[in-house]
Amino acid sequence: MPQTHKNWYGLWLLTESATHPLDSRRLRNQAKCRDAILKCHSTAGVQALPHAATSPRPLFLNVPPTPAPPATTPQRKFSLRSTVKWLALVALLLWSFAALALVAARWIDPPTTALHVERRMQAWMHHKPYRERYNFVPLNQISPDFQHAVISAEDGRFYLHHGFDWHELEIAAKDDMEGERTRGASTITQQLVKNLFFGTGGSFLRKGAEFTLVPVAELVLGKQRILELYLNIVEWGPGVYGADAACRTWYSTPAHNIGRDRAARLAAILPAPLRRRPERMNNYSTVILGRMRQVGW
């Protein structure tokens, strides 16, 4: 140890011994340890730092560093929020597809509908024979009496509303005939959207999607095209879809030749086409003919 450091260190020992006489032995032991450490450093060629000699505490050398915890790969967890976002995205894509299909239906006749597919699947699941009769014809090839009978039976205010008949919603519960409701609150536009995309399902999700698509149908199709599509895709019996197929199945005549009375009977089975028969619709067909006369048809 250099002479200057020894003198300074001895002075510090005397001061500490005078201040803490009980610790004089401990301080002398620390001094011996310090001298030994400095000697080792000098032998190894390591230059001691100036402030190292002034520290009364021993140095702890070659202390291994604390090992860092092993890195773990974070696992992606789908939270409720991300699940809701994905569901919303899927719903938006499906809605966009349906809206584009409605735009295309302005010029393209639908080759099939959700209702057609549903009936075909039901027959396959129950192992029943299924024969589909579906022939799309232009509106001018459907008898005007047939058109008027269907409007009178299903949506008397068809040309007055914009997709929803709020007045009919109020009186639908009271409009029952032959022990059943003969005319529901759904408009022709609503039934068209339901048959095209949703089949016979009645969930709140379906009703919500239908509620948003009805204005699109009214906007892009117009009343005449809506009526033409509805008359051609609606169900008129097991495997019977459309006005022309209904006329040929029940009365062996094309749709443009159907008479007034027969048209009213065919319109009368629309609320329950799988259970009703035109020849049994005496009372309700009379009501339909009365409604037609009231509006001058």
Describe the structure in brief.
By secondary structure, this protein is mostly helical.
Keywords, separated by commas or semicolons:
single chain, 297 residues, mainly alpha, Penicillin binding protein transpeptidase fold, 2 domains, two-stranded parallel ribbon, two-stranded antiparallel ribbon, 12 helices, 4 strands, 54% helix
What can you see in these coordinates?
The longest helix is centred in the first third of the chain and has 25 residues, at 80-104. 26% of the residues are buried. The protein has a two-stranded parallel sheet. The chain has 2 domains: 3-52; 81-294, Orthogonal Bundle (Penicillin binding protein transpeptidase fold). It is built from 12 helices and 4 strands. The chain is mostly helical. It is elongated and about 130 Å long. Helix content is 54%, strand content 3%.
